[in-house]
């Protein structure tokens, strides 16, 4: 599949389209305008992976570099993972949107990021269904061995959720959903978009499995495989929420943050018999069941409504 959004822009000789200046600016920019999605995926992966390289080589990863990232708020991932996460998806989306669509595109992209005015029912759906599904899955995979969470964890849940919103949610969703999904659905439809974007989203994370983020070196080789399967299934669910909420990024961020928050707080206390791999397997099973149900219920449309042709708009 060739991911191309628009025909190549005409070359303006006065803008440096010829000679050395054109080679340095015109041709690369022309490639970006012809292939915005391909450029986004290459930049998102390349910039994040490059920024993660010190973390991967450090004692938090392969141990080739004799240095360890300090723990901040109890985790080395804030300094080791988060900078590369911000640099990749959201940075690439901002850059490519500015080049391809200019100010109008940036306003549209930012508008979805600020689209908080959504029916309250969707906030309820996002806030309640994620922990409910993970609670059911954890109960099944633990054989019914469930413990009551501590008061400390219950009180910390909302602050942790907000923290995940401004870290993981903000770093990833403006790129994967706001930029990539919005464009891909217009080109290849919602069903194919969901199953193309899901593996690409999972692929972006794979180098982190060589660090303590992914349980290195104790984790088995199956963990990244299961994680990619989770990304594929959960992306179907995320696509449905994105479409049904009028492309609201805050709701996508909230759903993404909800999974991370429950898994790292309530899930750990409520299902102590589940190790990291069993916990990931339970979350993946819940995502697969939800994805299949949504695909059947929506007949593969996932709530997507194609924009009306310009000729039919008032």
Structure write-up:
There is one protein chain. The protein is 69% helix and 0% strand. It is built from 11 helices and no strands. Helix 6 packs across helix 9 (249-264), helix 8 (222-244) packs antiparallel against helix 9 and helix 8 (222-244) packs parallel to helix 11. The protein is globular and about 55 Å long. The model is unreliable at 1-24 and 310-314 (pLDDT under 50).
Spans where pLDDT lies below 50 across 5 or more residues? 1-24, 310-314
Mean pLDDT: 88
| Overall 3D form | globular
What is the overall number of helices? 11
Let me know the largest β-sheet. none
Q: How many strand segments?
A: 0
Query: In percent, how helical is the residue content?
Result: 55-70%
Report the end-to-end length measured between terminal Cα atoms: 34 Å
Secondary-structure element string: HHHHHHHHHHH
Beta-strand percent range = under 5%
Radius of gyration based on Cα positions: 21 Å
Counting helices, strands and paired strands, the structural category is mainly alpha
Structure at a glance:
With 314 residues, the chain is mainly alpha-helical.
């Amino acid at each position: 599949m060739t991911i191309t959004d628009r025909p190549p822009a005409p070359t303006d000789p006065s803008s440096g389209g010829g000679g050395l200046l054109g080679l340095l600016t015109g041709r690369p920019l022309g490639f970006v305008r012809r292939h915005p999605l391909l450029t986004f995926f290459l930049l998102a992966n390349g910039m994040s992976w490059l920024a993660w390289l010190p973390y991967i080589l450090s004692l938090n990863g392969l141990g080739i570099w004799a240095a360890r990232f300090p723990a901040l708020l109890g985790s080395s991932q804030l300094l080791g993972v988060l900078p590369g996460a911000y640099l990749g998806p959201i940075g690439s989306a901002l850059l490519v949107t500015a080049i391809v669509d200019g100010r109008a595109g940036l306003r549209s992209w930012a508008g979805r990021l600020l689209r908080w005015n959504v029916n309250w029912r969707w906030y309820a759906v996002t806030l309640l269904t994620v922990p409910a599904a993970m609670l059911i899955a954890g109960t099944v995979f633990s054989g019914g061995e469930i413990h009551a969470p501590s008061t400390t964890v219950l009180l910390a849940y909302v602050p942790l959720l907000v923290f995940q919103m401004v870290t993981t949610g903000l770093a990833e969703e403006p790129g994967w959903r706001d930029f990539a999904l919005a464009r891909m659905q217009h080109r290849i439809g919602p069903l194919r978009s969901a199953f193309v974007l899901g593996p690409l989203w999972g692929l972006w994370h794979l180098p982190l499995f060589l660090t303590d983020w992914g349980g290195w070196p104790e984790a088995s080789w199956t963990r990244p495989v299961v994680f990619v399967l989770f990304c594929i299934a959960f992306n179907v669910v995320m696509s449905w929420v994105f479409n049904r909420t009028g492309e609201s990024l805050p709701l996508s961020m909230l759903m993404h943050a909800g999974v991370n928050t429950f898994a790292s707080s309530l899930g750990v206390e409520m299902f102590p018999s589940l190790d990291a791999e069993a916990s990931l397997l339970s979350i993946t099973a819940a995502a697969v069941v939800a994805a299949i149900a949504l695909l059947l219920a929506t007949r593969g449309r996932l709530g997507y409504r194609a924009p009306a042709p310009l000729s039919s708009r008032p």
